[in-house]
């Protein structure tokens, strides 16, 4: 009798899990059905393709790692065509959470605009529109750019944003960043040390133990023409945070007094811990600035 009860529970859990996965995939399918069949003379392709982490490499060869590192769930790929013109490509990524959708968007942005909506962060440049809303990251590409294509891309973007009813929430870790002199569009959010190195190279090894169980944000600051950086990493527990700080000091700042050191280029780097949070200041112009920024961590 007990075995039968356990079997029922297992089957129920498997069924529930399957329904959850299907629901997320279906939501993209439903979104595709609500895309306009025609817009400014561009016709929606009859073929709609859904991708998962298992086959994303078939669609984005060499770039799938980025999305997978942010716990990517599903991708809807949709084309729009017009006679004798290159197609417009619409990609809608279900990233599983609002935080990860923001993370993917933040990875490569160079500017911020609100061309989609006042309450939606987006970036448009040279025929490419990207934005995030709720758990979705959206990319619409029309290359080469023309005024007609730009109008169509923006109209499609606004339509898709209107179909997404979820609220957009940024990681709370961002609120811990010092705000004075910050370049807002430079804020990056990630769970993999490779993406840290793509913005500021630390080491070819994961000396800060950044992984899927951690949250990390990196921001650039500009003051009197000087650029410096602040990195915050939140760990699942204090023990892992302490281990990460020790590793960073050993490998990046050996012999640093009180966790602050002037490097060979004359710039200053420092590291401090507060509970589960590790803060690193990089490329500070002087020791006073490094100490001031590190002091923000304990406020």
> Beta-sheet strand percentage?
25-35%
General form = elongated
Q: What is the rounded Rg? A: 22 Å
Annotation field: number of helices: 8
What is the residue-averaged pLDDT?
A: 90
CATH topology of the largest domain: Protein Transport Mog1p, Chain A
How far is the N terminus from the C terminus? 58 Å
* Strands, count: 14
Topology at a glance:
Layout: H1 2-33, E1 38-39, E2 42-51, H2 56-59, H3 64-69, E3 74-82, E4 85-94, H4 98-108, E5 113-117, E6 120-125, E7 128-133, E8 136-141, H5 147-163, E9 188-190, H6 193-199, E10 215-223, E11 226-234, H7 238-252, E12 260-262, E13 268-274, E14 277-284, H8 287-295
Antiparallel strand pairs: 1-2, 2-3, 3-4, 4-8, 5-6, 6-7, 7-8, 9-10, 10-11, 11-14, 12-13, 13-14
What do you see in this structure?
The protein folds into two domains: 24-163, Protein Transport Mog1p, Chain A (3-Layer(aba) Sandwich); 172-298, PknH-like extracellular domain (Protein Transport Mog1p, Chain A, 3-Layer(aba) Sandwich). The protein contains eight helices and 14 strands. The protein has helices at residues 2-33, 56-59, 64-69, 98-108, 147-163, 193-199, 238-252, 287-295, and strands spanning 38-39, 42-51, 74-82, 85-94, 113-117, 120-125, 128-133, 136-141, 188-190, 215-223, 226-234, 260-262, 268-274, 277-284. The strands form two sheets. The chain has an eight-stranded antiparallel sheet, sandwiched between helices. It has a six-stranded antiparallel sheet with strand order 9-10-11-14-13-12, with helices on both faces. Strand 7 and strand 8 form a beta hairpin. The longest helix is centred in the first third of the chain and has 32 residues, at 2-33. The N and C termini lie far apart (58 Å). The model is unreliable at 1-26 (pLDDT under 50).
């Amino acid at each position: 009798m007990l075995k039968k009860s356990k079997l029922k529970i297992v089957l129920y859990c498997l069924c529930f899990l399957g329904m959850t996965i299907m629901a997320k995939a279906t939501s993209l399918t439903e979104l595709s059905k609500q895309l306009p069949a025609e817009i400014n003379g561009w016709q929606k392709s009859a073929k709609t393709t859904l991708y998962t982490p298992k086959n994303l490499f078939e669609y984005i060869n060499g770039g799938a790692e980025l999305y997978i590192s942010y716990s990517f769930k599903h991708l809807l790929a949709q084309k729009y065509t017009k006679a004798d013109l290159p197609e417009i490509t619409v990609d809608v990524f279900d990233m599983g959470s609002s935080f990860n959708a923001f993370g993917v968007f933040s990875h490569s942005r160079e500017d911020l605009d609100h061309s989609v909506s006042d309450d939606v962060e987006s970036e448009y440049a040279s025929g490419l529109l990207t934005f995030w809303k709720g758990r979705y990251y959206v990319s619409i590409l029309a290359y080469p750019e023309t005024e007609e294509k730009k109008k169509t891309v923006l109209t499609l973007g606004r339509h898709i944003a209107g179909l997404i009813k979820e609220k957009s929430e940024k990681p709370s870790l961002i609120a811990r960043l010092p705000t004075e002199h910050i370049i807002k569009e430079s804020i990056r959010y990630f769970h993999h040390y490779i993406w840290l190195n793509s913005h500021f190279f630390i080491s070819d090894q994961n000396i800060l133990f950044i992984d899927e169980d951690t949250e990390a944000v990196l921001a650039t600051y500009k003051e009197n023409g000087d650029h410096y950086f602040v990195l915050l990493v939140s760990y699942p527990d204090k023990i892992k945070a302490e281990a990460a700080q020790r590793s960073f000091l050993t490998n990046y700042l050996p012999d640093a007094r009180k966790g602050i050191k002037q490097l060979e280029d004359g710039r200053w780097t420092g590291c401090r811990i507060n509970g589960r949070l590790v803060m690193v200041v990089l490329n500070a112009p002087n020791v006073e600035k490094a100490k001031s920024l590190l002091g923000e961590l304990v406020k």
